[in-house]
Amino acid sequence: MSKLWIKICGITQNSDAIAAVGSGADAIGLVFYVASPRAVTKDKVEEITDGIVGNAQVVGLFVDAKAEEVNAVLETNRIDLLQFHGSESAQYCESFGFPYMKAFRVSADNYREQNFASYDSAQMILLDSYSEQKLGGTGNVFDWEIGRKIQSETGKNIVLAGGLNPDNVKTAIEQIHPFGVDVSSGVEQDHGIKDLNKVSAFIEGARSV
Fold first, then answer.
1. Cα separation of 190 and 179, whole Å?
2. 93 belongs to the catalytic site
3. Is 128 a catalytic residue?
4. Which of 16, 26, 128, 182 is catalytic?
5. Which alpha helices (DSSP H) does the chain contain, by range?
6. Torsion angles phi and psi, residue 118, rounded to 5
7. What is the full DSSP assignment across 78-120?
8. Are 82 and 93 in contact (CB under 8 A)?
9. CATH topology of domain 5-207
């Protein structure tokens, strides 16, 4: 198995970005969705990502955004990967000519209805917990056996999200063997403010598998 890809999402300040990358994260996520308590604007991108070194990726997360909103963020030249977390079509995701990851909110009831095959151009498929109230950052875990089945059936690079934290990430990886893991609320002290001890513990736990 290749090196596990680890993303710390919902970054809102430079110190957390630097610390996450310094602790070994492969990527940080910036949320460009105004309804999120972790939302940032394109005007903050340069400030948040200033001083990031090495090969760490900056991921821009969008939810059913207008194309001009995505393009405006891309024009900062600080984004390495797009993440689409809404009902975006594959055609829409591909229209930016930029590497992207497509998120799906899964549950035992809906995962077989998801059209994973349409997103063959996606570099990764992210699996998050389904909630009627929230599009992400729920802090809730879904049945990891579903993730294992989806990975086996699709053969795609699966990134596991939804309710991960320093206490359960090792078990999740051992059960699913995903391409990557993505955490937000599980390493926070408040919305958008990371607990750096939890960030470090999460990455250490993930790398220990």
1. 28
2. no
3. yes
4. 128
5. 14-22, 45-49, 67-74, 90-94, 144-154, 169-176, 196-207
6. -70, -20
7. --SEEEE-SS--HHHHHTT-S-EEEEEEE-TTTGGG--GGGGT
8. yes
9. TIM Barrel (3.20.20)
Query: Cα(176)–Cα(188) distance, rounded to whole angstroms?
Result: 24
Contact of 28 with 59, CB cutoff 8 Å: yes
Return d(Cα 104, Cα 18) in angstroms, integer: 28
Output the CA angle 187-191-193, nearest 5 degrees.
60
Active-site position among 9, 26, 93, 182: 9
Question: Helical H runs in 113-158?
Answer: 144-154
Residue 120, token pair as written in the block: 């063959």
Read off the pLDDT of residues 34-86 as tens digits, 9 standing for 90 and up: 999 999 999 999 999 999 988 999 999 999 999 999 999 999 999 999 999 99
pLDDT, tens digit (0-9, with 9 covering 90-100), for 193-206: 999 999 999 999 99
pLDDT digits (tens, 9 = 90+) for 132-180: 544 444 557 888 888 888 888 888 999 999 899 999 999 999 999 999 9
